[in-house]
Specification:
Largest interface: A-B, 10 and 17 residues
Mean pLDDT of chain A: 92
Number of strands of chain B: 10
Low-confidence stretches of chain B: none
Oligomer: heterodimer
Largest sheet of chain A: 9 strands, mixed
CATH architecture of the largest domain in chain B: Up-down Bundle
Number of helices of chain A: 6
Helix content of chain A: 25-40%
Number of domains of chain B: 3
Distance between the termini of chain B: 36 Å
Shape of chain B: globular
Order of helices and strands of chain A: EEEEEHEHEHEHEEEEHEH
Helix content of chain B: 40-55%
Strand order of the largest sheet of chain A: 11-10-9-12-8-1-6-7-13
CATH class of the largest domain in chain B: Mainly Alpha
CATH superfamily of the largest domain in chain B: Butyryl-CoA Dehydrogenase, subunit A, domain 3
Radius of gyration of chain A: 22 Å
Strand content of chain B: 15-25%
Mean pLDDT of chain B: 95
Number of helices of chain B: 12
Low-confidence stretches of chain A: none
CATH class of the largest domain in chain A: Alpha Beta
Number of domains of chain A: 2
Number of strands of chain A: 13
Structural class of chain B: alpha+beta
Order of helices and strands of chain B: HHHHHHHEEEEEEEEHEEHHHH
Largest sheet of chain B: 4 strands, mixed
Structural class of chain A: alpha/beta
Chain lengths: 251, 371
């Protein structure tokens, strides 16, 4: 059986981002594999280590720089990778359409997708991909067991969590708690350089038309208030507590 | 590769460093993790369970670990650089099969016993004796400054099989930790507290003859040859500590304000930082060059000593300046720079003092007719 894990690349959470004239200045920012996607790679590896016979394929849709994140997935233990390379920014619905063609062509039976993108916070890709494939889907998955042709999963809901049983093939979106991703070992990092990384054009399965277009982007910028509370220390302390509670809402 | 190892070192090792400094204990848990990743057998071929990488990769990775915690760097450099290198170069096939996979995977940690209480730089003056008996040798004597003493499972020990023959009477033995070995209490050191250091006393400790590494009388020259790569390792370690100190000082200089602006805007601070980073880069380049040349099978006696001398003295200076930039906080244990300052000091001492490096370099100038 083939397992596909979808990989995205995002700015390192510790990178300092600066707003630019239009959008964000990503110059000099380190990019890493999205942490949410690492849970998917790890889960696929664990299934195999539990004795489940699987070929693990890392798949990414994005610009050339994604290659580094793909190599990370290979270093973690994925067998090969496919990169649909494009500079076009696509909405999740369109991405899902493209990826569904690839999943069908590879005849994969299990697909892992990170629960939420670390950069733009979109959580749409997993459900959209399941929809495009017509497959069952479990979102926010924290536990997964595989049986003969079925999966038993635990996933988070608004109220708590529930256990589901779903037949294969299926799409699973992953999140923190599912597992603890490993670090790649030195020998595997070296081997990853020699593993197959196939490149495909975006129009491999026909022309792609984005359903939405990005016309502007901005990030929240935190600025200091530079407020000084004057006066009697006891009064000032009272005022500070009030501000922390009512305005900053940190107490 | 560097990015992955940095991520590991900063997430798993760096947070432990302050605690290990105050309440030292041998960091087995993180060492096991390092073993799993391949960091404890970097130079050992894959056939013996190592990562099979070259010296340049080794120094780059050792810098990352040392920047997170110097004690981990020292344990890593000893087990990688000395026992495994000696066994690879001089060990019998049986010795390699028996010990290298254990050491490279981190199941065992390896140690090296050359110095004695009365002799460090003048190692040929050692008095530990290996007396030939039926089927092996009896070791008697005391070794000093044993990194990972009492914790390591394998000790490469130099002892005299022929006491009257001076350096030519020294042989090398692979000694598994046994009851005939008595470890002293851990030395209380200025820094690198988790890299436990003890004395090791042998009292008629039996070592089977198949554990002789190389041939009788070859020990001293083997030890001296392995010091070249050992010194490149210490240079990388010093670069790692210096880098951590520089980065801490750089960040602090941007945050701390005096007279209404960040202190990095004052020339007194920015010139210091400029000198620090220049020395750091120079030390790193000398280290990389020595490693690169060793990878090309060139003799690197002078290059290794130059890297070790320059990097360790640069580390002492850079950590000194880092404390100064932090001011009062630099002197406080609430900030990491005083630890870097203490951790760096020993790099000028172990694997050959700065004085010995100068002796070696001075000698090589005329041997190689350096231009």
């Amino acid at each position: 059986m083939k397992i596909i894990t979808i990989i995205k690349q995002v700015p390192d959470a510790e990178a300092r981002l600066h707003p630019a004239e239009e959008g964000i200045d990503l110059d000099g920012v380190t990019f890493v594999i999205d942490g949410m996607d690492e849970y998917g790679v790890e889960e696929a590896l664990r299934l195999r280590e539990q004795g489940f016979d699987a070929e693990i394929i890392a798949v990414a849709l994005g610009p050339q720089r994604y290659e580094e994140a793909i190599r990370t997935a290979l270093a973690l233990g994925a067998d090969r990778a496919i990169h649909i390379e494009t500079d076009t920014v696509l909405d999740p619905i369109t991405q899902a359409k493209v990826l569904s063609n690839l999943v069908s062509e590879e005849e994969a039976e299990l697909v892992f997708v990170g629960g939420k993108q670390a950069d733009w916070d979109s959580a749409a890709l997993g459900p959209a991909l399941a929809e495009a494939l017509g497959w069952p889907h479990s979102d926010w998955t924290t536990k997964l067991d595989i049986g003969a042709g079925t999966l038993t999963v635990t996933h988070d809901t608004d109220e708590g969590q529930e256990d589901l049983s779903l037949p294969l093939p299926a799409v699973i979106t992953t999140q923190q708690g599912l597992n603890e991703p490993r670090y790649p070992t030195l020998p595997n990092i070296m081997k990853a350089k020699r593993k197959e990384l196939k490149k495909l054009p975006l129009d491999q399965w026909g022309g792609v038309q984005a359903k939405t277009a990005v016309v502007g982007e901005a990030i929240q910028v935190r600025e200091r208030l530079n407020r000084v509370i004057e006066g009697d220390p006891v009064e000032a302390a009272r005022e500070l507590v009030r501000l922390l509670r009512e305005e900053a809402k940190v107490l | 590769m560097v990015r992955h190892v940095r991520e590991f070192a900063q997430a798993e090792i760096a947070p432990l460093a302050p605690q290990l400094d105050r309440k030292p204990s041998f960091p087995w848990k993180t060492l096991k993790m390092m073993g799993e990743l391949g960091l404890l057998g970097i130079l050992t071929p894959e056939a013996y369970g190592g990562a099979g990488l070259d010296m340049l990769s080794y120094v780059v990775l050792l810098e990352e670990i040392s920047a997170a915690d110097a004690s981990h760097g020292t344990i890593m450099s000893v087990t990688n650089g000395l026992p495994q290198q000696l066994l690879l170069k001089y060990g019998s096939e049986a010795q390699r099969q028996r010990y290298l996979p254990k050491l490279a995977s981190g199941e065992w940690v390896g140690s090296f016993c050359l110095s004695e209480p009365h002799c460090g730089s003048d190692a040929a003056a050692m008095t530990t004796r290996a007396k030939k008996v039926d089927g092996g040798y009896l070791l008697s004597g005391t070794k000093a400054w044993i990194t990972s003493g009492g914790e390591a499972q394998l000790y490469l020990v130099l002892a005299k099989t022929e006491p009257s023959a001076g350096a030519r009477g020294v042989s090398c033995f692979a000694v598994e930790k046994t009851e005939g070995m008595v470890f002293g209490k851990p030395e209380e050191k200025l820094g690198q507290h988790a890299a436990v250091t003890t004395t090791l006393t042998f009292d008629r400790c039996f070592v089977p003859e198949e554990n002789l590494v190389g041939s009788e009388g070859q020990g001293f020259s083997m030890a001296m040859a392995s010091l070249d790569s050992g010194r490149i390792g210490i240079a990388a370690l010093a670069v790692g500590i210096a880098r951590a100190a520089f980065e801490a000082a750089r960040d602090y200089a941007g945050e701390r304000e005096a007279f209404g602006r960040p202190i990095r805007e004052f020339q007194g601070i920015s010139f210091k930082l400029a000198d620090m980073v220049t020395k750091l880069e120079a030390a790193r380049l000398l280290t990389h060059r020595a490693a690169w040349q060793q990878d090309r099978a060139r003799r690197v006696t002078r290059e290794a000593s130059m890297a070790k001398l320059f990097a360790s003295e640069a580390a002492a200076e850079i950590t000194h300046h880092a404390v100064q930039i932090f001011g009062g906080y630099g002197y406080s244990k609430d900030y990491p720079v005083e630890r870097y300052f203490r951790d760096a000091r020993v790099t000028e001492i172990y694997e050959g003092t700065s004085e010995i490096q100068r002796v070696v370099i001075g000698r090589q100038i005329f041997k190689e007719r350096v231009r």
